[in-house]
Design a protein that fits this description.
The chain is mostly beta strands and 365 residues long. The protein has two helices and 18 strands. The protein has a 16-stranded antiparallel beta barrel with strand order 1-2-3-4-5-6-7-8-9-12-13-14-15-16-17-18. The N terminus is likely disordered.
Length: 365
């Protein structure tokens, strides 16, 4: 099975490079480059964690159209952090200084309805933080789009990824053990309108080849595992299931907008009471500033805790969040303030109820 999945990755790369060379594309010199700087602060209070973290972040984002149907893009950055972290089990909020690869990819679109992307792809494109966060996975992604009108589209997307790379997570460490695979296939639709816009997708996902190191770290983040160290730990349950995402937004006037966003996650390898995740977010926009609230619940084994978003407590947590975000167009400044309260779902020796505050300011140049 692993060999066949690796063959899919290799075949996609070979197919893309061979056909690009034979297509006779027109060479292009179109390039863009954007730079941003940001300041953020995070406070986490829990029985086993007491952290105060301040971060200064630099981001460089660029793209270059190599040929008419072939372009390359990247996003890299540097994080400079300071603060305090008193954690008993895992140093998720340990201040650090590091380089970050958010994304680096080559995109090839030989036909208007078919696109292939290869490289380190940021998993935020799945809109599924309870399943996978914003890490870059070595991936091959194929997408077939069927546009009914310029504003209405039906699509099928397939991704084959290798999660383990040199920096799996900015917060919870690295592991280079094993030969893990992550597969995600989904059917989706986008319906854009002047007043009402709807988008959503339903997909099938699967993890295989998860290492002992990933299992050991995931124990402290809510998953069920056996073993007591990074070389002997194993997940009790497998990880394979379905996911769904939907978003409805309405521009009521130049001043006012409404937004509703939801996510559902199901792991068919784990028992009832441990296998589901859901998230609901609603927002009220006023002149480009959004006041929002969230409800979320991610049971202990709905997903692999090492790979999903820490913003929602990883696994075995349910909670509420509220905040405000927006952009100041004249100064190219964006901001976010979010506060959340999370409670553990099942008894755990490594988790407890959590209070978290996040604040960020970003300036684009």
């Amino acid at each position: 099975m692993i060999k066949s999945k690796n063959l899919v990755l290799f075949s996609s790369l070979l197919f893309a490079s061979t056909n690009t060379a034979s297509k006779g594309l027109i060479k292009s010199d179109v390039s863009t480059l954007n730079f941003s700087a940001g300041l953020s602060a995070t406070s986490v209070q829990e029985t086993f964690v007491n952290a105060k973290l301040v971060s200064f972040k630099l981001r460089l984002k660029g793209s270059h159209q190599l040929y008419e149907a072939l372009d390359a893009s990247f996003e890299v950055g540097a994080n400079l952090e300071s603060g305090s972290n008193n954690a008993q089990f895992i140093n998720e909020f340990e201040p650090s200084k590091n380089w970050t690869l958010k994304e680096a990819k080559v995109s090839w679109q030989p036909l208007s309805f078919f696109n292939v992307q290869l490289g380190a792809l940021n998993q935020k494109h799945l809109n599924n933080p309870l399943l996978v966060g914003g890490s870059a996975f070595a991936s091959a992604k194929q997408k077939v789009s069927i546009p009914f009108t310029p504003d209405h589209e039906l699509y099928f997307e397939s991704e084959q990824a290798i999660p383990n790379n040199q920096s799996l997570s900015e917060r919870i460490g690295q592991t280079n053990q094993g030969n893990p695979q992550f597969m995600h296939h989904r059917l989706g639709a986008k319906l854009d309108g002047n007043v009402l816009s709807i988008k959503g997708s339903v997909g099938k996902w699967n993890y295989t080849g998860l290492s002992s190191g990933v299992a050991f770290r995931s124990l402290f983040l809510g998953n069920s595992t056996n073993g007591g160290d990074s070389s002997t730990s194993k997940f009790i349950y497998g990880y394979s299931g379905i996911s769904a995402y939907g978003e409805v937004s309405s521009q009521l006037s130049d001043m006012l907008s409404l937004n509703l966003e939801g996510q559902y996650l199901y792991n068919d390898k784990a028992p009832e009471g441990r296998n589901k995740g859901n998230r609901l977010k609603f927002g009220l926009g006023i002149y480009g500033h959004e006041i929002f609230g969230e409800f979320f619940r991610n049971e202990s084994d709905s997903s692999v805790a090492f790979y999903n978003a820490g913003l929602y407590g990883h696994n075995n947590k349910e909670g509420v969040a509220a905040g405000i975000s927006g952009k100041l167009k004249t100064s190219k400044l964006s901001y976010l303030f979010r506060m959340s309260e999370m409670k553990k779902i099942k008894s755990s020796l490594y988790q407890n109820d959590t209070t978290r505050f996040d604040l960020s300011l970003t300036k684009n140049f």
